[in-house]
Amino acid sequence: MTRIHKTVLILAAVIALVLGLTVSKVLNAPQQTDPTALADAGIILLPQSRALPALSLTDENGQPQAVDQLKGRWTLLFFGYTFCPDICPTTLAELRQLKAQLPPEVLERYTVTMVSIDPNRDTPEQLRQYLGYYKAGFTGLTGELAQIQQLANAVSIPFIPGDTSKQHYTVDHSGNLALIGPDGRQRGFIRAPLNPTKLAAQLPQVLKQE
What we know:
- With 210 residues, this protein is an alpha+beta fold.
- Helices cover 39% and strands 21% of the residues.
- The chain contains 7 helices and 8 strands.
- Strands 1-8-7-4-5-6-2-3 form an 8-stranded mixed beta sheet, sandwiched between helices.
- Helix 3 (87-101) crosses helix 7.
- The longest helix has 26 residues, at 3-28.
- The protein is globular, with a radius of gyration of 23 Å.
- Residues 3-31 have low confidence and may be disordered.
């Protein structure tokens, strides 16, 4: 083998090594989220995260919960109420369907919390019983109406309180969800109506972020 042949072989080996390392780096790099695909699934990420207000509500077990301390896991905040005739049962059923399609490693970093916009009727016990129907591990929050409105306004999902002087009143609200990161700050929204299949395809990439 001539010196030129040896040089060519060495260069080829070096090039192959560099290409191999480059391909490995690309394959092992974390997948980037596609804004177009996210939007198609109804996921809107904020350019900058938002802090939640420092206020305390009560969970479905009657325990205090500081909303600005929702940390350690990704949280989907849904503003609804247990006497809701349409949006709430539909949304919670879709969220249950979404949960069934997410892999275990994603579920470990994810939870769904319904914030009651009808604290006049939604006691912790009422919330616990209602959410229990779905058998999906959903949690709930209730409390003073003024505090709930403050939280809803802070995450840009406002609602119109019901007329409690009427016997069978309803509460006007949307089915949009607030996306809270593991740092306890709002990272974005999920628009209604929900599409569990598209969300199951896109949400895991979002939830892998810190």
